[in-house]
Design goal:
170 residues; mainly alpha; 82% helix; 0% strand
């Protein structure tokens, strides 16, 4: 009987430790987001890295670390984080969108177009995805696609897209 009680106590201890670690990971992600909002990017990265040491598959920590790396113009590092977030959650629209933005900054316009297209497939009502996809398409010279995506963005309420249509899609 004492062995059974010991085993139950040990199981409860492991369960409490796991919950505590998850709360700590969530707290670190929240702290990192707060630091990011204050433009304390170094502090934010430290928090996201600490969260990932506790849980290397925390999609939020990966996404937000990628976002901070993007803000720091560390586009290759951002892409790696978004890649991992997408591997863990293939429905993560924001990771596709922001990986597309990072690819665009590296002049990988085809890769950016693919990411924006995936984000649109996952969320067809996101005017920013259409607009950014149109900009990438413009850089590869696909005028028909540019106009189509600008029209979609304008239909969704993007006033800038409506203005650009007047200039490019006559």
């Amino acid at each position: 009987m004492k062995l059974k009680e010991f085993f139950l106590t040990l199981c409860m201890l492991f369960a409490v430790t796991a919950v505590s670690a998850q709360q700590t990971t969530d707290d670190l992600v929240k702290s990192g987001n707060k630091k990011d909002s204050l433009k304390n990017y170094t502090g934010a990265l430290e928090d996201f890295n600490a969260a990932l040491k506790l849980d290397s598959e925390n999609v939020n920590a990966l996404y937000y670390r990628g976002y901070v790396n993007f803000e720091l113009k560390k586009y290759t590092e951002a892409i790696k984080d978004f890649d991992e977030a997408i591997r863990l959650d293939s429905q993560d629209v924001e990771s596709f969108f922001n990986r597309g933005n990072a690819r665009y900054e590296l002049k990988d316009y085809s890769g950016a177009i693919k990411d924006f297209a995936t984000a649109i497939r996952l969320n067809p009502n996101d005017k920013e995805c259409y607009y950014n996809k149109a900009i990438a398409e413009y850089n590869v010279g696909d005028t028909d696609a540019v106009c189509h995506d600008l029209e979609q963005a304008a239909k969704l309420g993007d006033t800038m897209a409506a203005e650009v249509i007047k200039e490019l899609c006559k």
